[in-house]
Amino acid sequence: MNRPFRKSFIFFLTFVLALSSLSFNAFASSTVETEIDPERLLVVFKSESLPNDVNEIISAAGGEITYEVPQIGTVEVTTDTPASFLKEIMNNLNVLSVGPSQEVTLDLPDFNEASEVASSETPIANIWESGYQWDIEQVTNNGASHDIHKDARNEVVVAVIDSGFDFNHPDLKNHVDLEGSRTFVPGTEGVTDSWDYNSHGTHVAGTIGAEGSMKGVAPGVTLRSYRVFGATGGAQQIWITDAIIAAANDGVDVINMSLGGTRLLGQWFFTDPETKETISGGNSAADYVAYNRAIRYAVNKGVTIVSSAGNSEQDLKSPAKVAEWQNANRNDGWEARGAVFFVPAQIPGVITVSATGAGFGTEDRLAFYSNYGNGAINVSAPGGDLGPDRAGGSKYLVLSTVPTYMEFGGRGPEAEALFGKGYGWKGGTSMAAPQVSGVAAAYIAQVLVETGQKPSPNQVQTRIQQTAVDAGQTGYDELYGHGIVNAHRALLNSRK
């Protein structure tokens, strides 16, 4: 793992200030002086390595390095004078571009309309046979793919870049790699490590490979956590790119990223709030370049990368319109000029997954929140929604594992009433991506058994697309891509 400059106190102070900002105005007065938070910037160098004098370069421009990923020539910097920093740093011939270091959040759709599901007198002991896992049933043809070369799956490692795991969950503990898991959240290393205090990561892990009362798509696969989110679901992009590099160096086979945000392929411009001068951050937006380098690094090491398409109901084929949408929602002095993409979903080399709803006798449909777009979606997978009329209840969402030590890790108390602690419903493209990661892992295991070698990322993606179940318009379409992923079809006659 890279050894970033851990600024635990700064991180804690920033977190406290973020929480307190909601109520600060009620107590502020003209006699109270407040300190403005330093600007957090991403600096990308022309070389995919850092200059030997990187600290001196950043310091001379008026900044301080808080995190670095040397394999992709990227550092995160804080500065109290962003305008002058930009002017100075862009004069350095080693620097490619500078932009805002944007936070990534676990932005799940709003399901407040969901109604409760009737509880049972005693918890259901066998969730898999209860009929509530409509998503896994669909993807595995009612479990027909579960036992195909299952014994080889422990040799396939899926990295979940997310909020961590409950390593003691009864449906996960036999297949999670606690020793190999890591945290990239500053201030948590050696304290909370890669345990999950949000529930998102544990839910994703269960969909990929749970084996117990519930079952994932690929039971038996080895799951490894690369934690980038704190309990409140916030992460800096550079932590994520660091985790991608680390997972690739660790030799994982699949990376699941049920996360994302918008990033610019173009130029960032910052307007000085005092002088109103507009300053360019360079011709190649730093945030997009950093993601692109990290993805390419991992794919070149043989890693298959799967990402959620996003939950913003956006048409991803129109990056200029996405740029307009993003700029309309910014008030931080930065303006994106060019094409804005959802990343990592739209980075070359990533399998991008839109979300469907179905189950309980209803037809497949694009989930109401899912992003879509011609050329942007590779495949789709169950992500859950509220049923065909948006009033069908939580059962139309995706049921999976949640931390046993959290109260109601999924939607509301009804899952605990039905199944006991450790299970919950969630919905989103975040829940669709791990369905595809599970299929990828199962397919890699099968090819390993049959040929003695693991397939390349391109071979895995091709197989997943070729064996997806067509939905919507015949052939490829903007909603479902090549179709709804199917593990059983992917594993049948895999060498053909």
CATH topology of the largest domain: Rossmann fold
How many strand units? 19
CATH superfamily of the largest domain: Peptidase S8/S53 domain
Number of discrete domains: 2
Protein name: S8 family serine peptidase
Signal peptide: 1-28
InterPro entries: Peptidase_S8/S53_dom, Peptidase_S8/S53_dom_sf, Peptidase_S8_Asp-AS, Peptidase_S8_His-AS, Peptidase_S8_Ser-AS, Peptidase_S8_subtilisin-like, Peptidase_S8_subtilisin-rel
Domain Peptidase S8/S53: 154-483
Topology:
Layout: H1 8-20, E1 39-45, H2 54-60, E2 64-69, E3 74-79, H3 82-89, E4 95-100, E5 103-105, H4 134-140, E6 157-162, E7 182-183, H5 200-209, E8 222-227, E9 234-236, H6 237-249, E10 254-257, E11 261-271, E12 278-280, H7 286-300, E13 304-308, H8 319-328, E14 334-343, E15 350-359, E16 362-366, E17 379-382, E18 398-401, H9 414-419, E19 423-426, H10 429-451, H11 457-466, H12 487-491
Parallel strand pairs: 6-8, 6-10, 7-8, 10-13, 13-15, 15-17
Antiparallel strand pairs: 1-3, 1-4, 2-3, 5-9, 11-12, 11-14, 15-16, 18-19
Helix pairs in contact: 5-10, 6-7, 10-11
What does this structure look like?
By secondary structure, this protein is an alpha/beta fold. It has 2 domains: 83 residues, Alpha-Beta Plaits, CATH 3.30.70; 364 residues, Rossmann fold (3-Layer(aba) Sandwich), CATH 3.40.50. Helices cover 26% and strands 21% of the residues. It has 12 helices and 19 strands. Strands 6, 7, 8, 10, 13, 15, 16 and 17 form an 8-stranded mixed β-sheet that branches. A 4-stranded antiparallel β-sheet has the order 2-3-1-4, with helices on both faces. α5 runs parallel beside α10 and α10 crosses α11. The radius of gyration is 22 Å and the shape is globular. 56% of the residues are buried.
